[in-house]
Amino acid sequence: MKIPIPEIHQIKAELCKRRLFFFLTEFWDIITTSEYGDNWHIEYLCDEIQLCLDKYVLERPPHIKPDKWYEGITENIQKNLVYTIPPGTSKSTILSRMAPAWLWANNPGKTWIRNTIDSKNATEFSSKTMDIINSEKYQLYFPEVKIRRDASAKLFYQSTAGGMHYSLTTRGSNTGKHADVISDDDPMDYTTAQSASEAKECIEGFKSLQTRKKDKSKTVYILGMQRLSSFDTVAHALKSLSDVREICLPAEDIYNNIKPEPLREYYTGGLLDPNRLSHKILSDVKMGLSDDSKPISDIAYNIQFNQISQSVEGLLYQELSFVDSLPENRNGVLRFSFTDVADTGKDYFCTWFIEINQGKIYVFDAIYSQEGSSVTSEKYVQKVKQHNILYNYMETNNQGSVYITMLHKLGIAVTGYTSKQNKDARITAYAQFIHFIQFVSLNSNLNREYQAAVKHVQAYPKQGKSSDGHDDAEDALTEMIKFIYENYPYLYK
Predict the structure, then answer these.
(1) Model pTM?
(2) 391-395 and 415-417: which strand pairing?
(3) Do the domains at 7-273 and 321-492 have one common CATH topology?
(4) Which CATH class is domain 7-273?
(5) pLDDT > 60? residue 420
(6) DSSP string spanning 138-170?
(7) Domain range summary for the chain, segments of one domain joined by +
(8) What is the C-alpha to C-alpha distance for residues 281 and 307, in angstroms, rounded to an integer?
(9) Of 89, 95, 240, 448, which has the fewest Cβ atoms less than 10 A away?
């Protein structure tokens, strides 16, 4: 016997079918314990996504008025939608968790392929959508939507009406699968985007997804992510897709890059979302305080949060601070050395000698040489003894561990460290703290290697290695800045 649905639930079920945004707010508590925090961009993105699905998949007229968000929003709706938005703005909840369940509420016979670079996210997206569909409320509202028991797995399940949900990863196989809707949710991450080979692999994943369209004239493709570089999936999608609507929602309205432009009026105090992405939160993100992770460079921040795909031309270290000499007060002085050992004969062996004195950081000498280890080791021992350095740190990657062993035999105490993160990303991330460093003036009577190392840092570009192809001085300097960030963070305040 079919149990009748109470009228209030019938009304809500109908409202859910009519609007993805209402569906999201109605089922929010099914997949998260956090209270729903409203902001205009959530409803707006729901509406833009639904416009695509309504026209090409459900084949019904627009659900909103033609001037709902901006004049003409319901005109020229494209079947490809690309939107860029900062992390932490419910992007994945809308696109990868809620929207597939909403589509089945309207037509459980439709198939959705969603893709992401992270396998854990792929599993989580799939599980959350399944949780919504299997929830008591969803089954009360849409009792005709059922998941087949014999076709129910973590990354794939099928409705009794024949519709399917697939969750894929960028580097995984997607052959043999075709869909009415294909969505890309962060198909590339920042580290991947900095590697030419890995970025190319992700772009190939994008190309492969385009072959999975059930009907090329109707299958909807939606890409949602934050910008990562000038050559990320967004850049390729905008270049290769002829019929695409682009949306760009930066965290801050400072670069005149909001798309569509009329959406600027919804920004509050120049912010996309003053609650999720307040000035304080954005500042903490840059400093790495929000999740105890490494800080994020100005370049990486502007790309990911302000959607600036092209970095401003110029130097990475805008301006170094110089002093004529070290302080005369020597009470409580701490001295360190940080070394990047030459990986090959063409690389430089670089050591920076620093001191922390009265709450300030001073760089006062360096070794910067392409000479062999027999020569650089002699220079190193001499400098360490000359400057009375008690704390010496040296990278163990490549030849570093061998070098440390040699120095131990020469009576020099050295502590090794291993750098695992992408070097370019590491250098740009910590460059923002350069203004806390005081370099002893180059006009002083100092060795030429110190002058050469400092001048190399001054000329280091924002993007990529310097014109001579070297980053040894910058790498060693970064490890020094990073060490202080992790052990003496108060010096950066």
Answers:
(1) 0.68
(2) parallel
(3) no
(4) alpha beta
(5) yes
(6) HHHH-TT--EEEEEE-SSEEEETTS-EEEEEET
(7) 7-273, 321-492
(8) 17
(9) 448
